[in-house]
Specification:
This protein is of the alpha/beta class. The protein folds into two domains: 2-184, Alpha-Beta Complex (2-enoyl-CoA Hydratase, Chain A, domain 1), CATH 3.90.226; 201-231. The chain is built from eleven helices and nine strands. Strand 1 and strand 2 form a beta hairpin. Helix 1 packs parallel to helix 3 and helix 9 runs antiparallel to helix 10 (205-222). The chain is globular, with a radius of gyration of 18 Å.
Length: 232
Amino acid sequence: MIDVDSDGAIRTVTIDRPDRRNALTVAGLEALERAVADADEPVIVIRGAGPAFCAGADLEVVADLDRDGAEEFARLGQRVARTIEDAAAVVVAEIDGPARGGGLELALACDLRVGTPDSTYGEPGVTFGLFGAWGGTVRLPRIIGEGATLELACTGRVVDADEALRMGLVSRLEDRPRTVAEELAETETDALAALKRRVRDDADRTTQERREAEAFGELVATHAAELDGLLE
C-alpha cells in the first residue's frame, strides 16, 4: 500500500491503493508513518497513485469499529500526521485529484502543499455523520482561519484548485508538482532543516528568538566560505 523510492535528496512516498482512491487502513497508516520516520533525505514527497491523492480513512474499516476502536484509529491518524509535521525533512504533499477527509488532513501536516489544476479538496465527514479526526480541527483553522474552516467542514463542500489556492489551502499550483521538491533539493539542505524547525517552534517568543539567533549563527559559521565567495 505504501511505496518508497529515493532519488538523491528526495524520498518519494506513494500511497498506492488506487482502486480505493488511496484510502488508508491501519496497516497503511503504520506503513506511511515508518516511511516518513525512517527518511534521511532532506526532502520528502507524499503523493497518491492513480487519479486521487488520498480519500482519507477507509470507511469499510471505520464501519467495523466500536467506540474504543474508533478513538484508537483517530489517535493513530493523529500520530502519523504529527510524524509528518515533526519530520526533520521538508515534506511536500503533491496533490493531483481528490484530497478528502483524512487525506486532506495528512496534507495539512505537510510543510508545503502543491496541487495540480485538477486537484480538489474537501472535508465531507459531516455528510455521513462524522468529521475529520486526524488533526484537521487543529491544523485547518491555523492555515485558512476559523471562519473558512467552519464553512468548509460544516457544509462538506468540495473546493477546486483555484479556490484552494486563494484560501491558502495549497501553497502553489503546478502542472508538474514535482518541480517544487526539485527546487528544494537544490538549496542548502541544512538551512532548510533549520528554517523548518524555527517556523514549527511553538515555544514562547523569547525562546523562539534565542533559538533563531543561535541557528542563524550556526549557519553563518558553516557557510562562511560560501559567503566570502559572494562578496568577491
